[in-house]
């Protein structure tokens, strides 16, 4: 059972592998162009990347992290509620989720959605884990981050791959129960230090 998983966004992490390989999946990052409010051009670029990955890997199932609408926050200065994420970003996320489902339908591949707390709990044991916790937790399963990712104080692109790995792990455990029992952090399996 070959699984391709995505963390959707302007920088979309992906993870690909089969639970039967008994190793962490391969992972990578797709950087989409900055298109401002041009949702169509953004969706078009994502579709091309999704199709290329599906054609390259020929997965049996595709999973993705469910887009979500963050809770509104009260602004004490304006004394009004405000969205935590701008509306264009939300439109882009929901659009590429639909595009991915459409591409999977074109290829007749099952496509499933995983929710963020479930993903975080699968990788860290805590459904409210921070991005900073997800990165080393995914490594503890053997995930190797490729060279060339941006890692600065303000941005760490590894978070997108860690989230994609979390989606992959959830899908693997759901659809490949026998093989997925072998998917454990290295420190649990006694195969090396975390």
TrEMBL record:
<protein>
    <recommendedName>
        <fullName>DUF429 domain-containing protein</fullName>
    </recommendedName>
</protein>
<dbReference type="GO" id="GO:0003676">
    <property type="term" value="F:nucleic acid binding"/>
</dbReference>
<dbReference type="InterPro" id="IPR012337">
    <property type="entry name" value="RNaseH-like_sf"/>
</dbReference>
<dbReference type="InterPro" id="IPR036397">
    <property type="entry name" value="RNaseH_sf"/>
</dbReference>
């Amino acid at each position: 059972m070959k699984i391709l998983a995505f963390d959707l966004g302007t920088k979309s992490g992906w993870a690909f592998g089969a639970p039967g390989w008994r190793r962490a999946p391969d992972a990578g990052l797709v950087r989409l162009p900055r298109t401002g409010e041009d949702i169509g051009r953004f969706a078009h670029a994502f579709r091309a990347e999704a199709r290329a990955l599906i054609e390259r890997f020929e997965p049996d199932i595709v999973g993705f992290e469910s887009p979500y609408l963050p809770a509104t926050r009260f602004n004490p200065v304006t004394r009004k509620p405000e969205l935590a994420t701008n509306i264009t970003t939300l439109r882009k996320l929901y659009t590429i989720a639909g595009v991915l489902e459409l591409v999977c339908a074109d290829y007749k591949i099952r496509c499933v959605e995983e929710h963020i707390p479930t993903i975080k709990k699968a990788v860290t044991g805590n459904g409210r884990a921070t991005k900073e916790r997800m990165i080393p937790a995914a490594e503890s399963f053997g995930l190797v981050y490729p060279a060339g990712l941006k890692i600065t104080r303000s941005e760490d692109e590894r978070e997108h791959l860690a989230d994609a790995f979390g989606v992959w792990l959830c899908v693997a455990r759901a659809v490949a129960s026998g093989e997925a029992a072998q998917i454990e952090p290295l420190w649990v399996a006694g195969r090396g230090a975390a």
